[in-house]
Amino acid sequence: MRTATFVASAAAVVATATVGGLATRPAGQSVWYRQLRKPAYQPPRSAFPVVWPVLYTDIAAVSAATFDRLRAAGNAPAARSYLGALAVNLLLNASWSWVFFNRHRLAAAVAVNAALTASSADLARRAIAVRGGRAAWLCLYPAWCAFAFVLSTHIWMLNRRARIDVP
């Protein structure tokens, strides 16, 4: 993997994390979020700052290596297609936080999360098709997104009829 490709990939991932983080930052202090009913299997808040940096690093590294492999093979159309899929994925990733935490749209957040899960699985599929088992670590990302989809759906179901007052 070329250093320049990894830096560009990492910059895109850091931008995604930053934009998404701006929406989630007040979640701990949010009256709205504290009032939501949540399932017992929701991970503790301390899990998210551990899981997401690992996933984001994985996305950046596997994506950079995949892109470089496609370019080295002279497959510019597939390289552009992978970059497009990555861009859509990162947009969905950041969007979910804004839809859920900032706009408080639980049903819409479930829809965004479903699209994110599908997009993450597609990204992993594409990377594995190019790099084989070396890209398999990227499967952790759609697995986490699928878990988040189940969790988001459950939170929506628990709160869909609730009126949550926000001061």
Automatic annotation (TrEMBL):
Keywords: Membrane, Receptor, Signal, Transmembrane, Transmembrane helix. GO terms for biological process: tetrapyrrole metabolic process. It is a multi-pass membrane protein. Gene3D superfamilies: TspO/MBR protein (1.20.1260.100). Coiled coil: none annotated. The keyword Transmembrane helix applies. The keyword rRNA-binding does not apply. It is found in: Membrane. This is Tryptophan-rich sensory protein (Mitochondrial benzodiazepine receptor homolog). It comes from the Bacteria. GO terms for cellular component: membrane. Residues 1-17 form the signal peptide. Belongs to the TspO/BZRP family. InterPro entries: TspO/MBR-related_sf (IPR038330), TspO_MBR (IPR004307). The lineage of its organism: Bacteria, Bacillati, Actinomycetota, Actinomycetes, Mycobacteriales. The chain crosses the membrane at residues 47-67, 79-100, 136-157.
